[in-house]
Amino acid sequence: MTTVTAELLTVPEVMARLKLGRSTVYDLIRSRRLVSITIGRSRRVPADAVRDFIDNQIEETA
Hints:
The chain is an alpha+beta fold. It has three helices and three strands.
């Protein structure tokens, strides 16, 4: 049995990591460029999704 422990970030934490505004982060989530999940009424973004987003942005500009 494997244990998966993914760090879940709040939108403000994602904003701080990406140095983006709140509406931009929600636009990325809405357009499915940034993966997120909903737990109850809270939106969470896996830390891996933020890293994947950054990697994809780097690949697109290369």
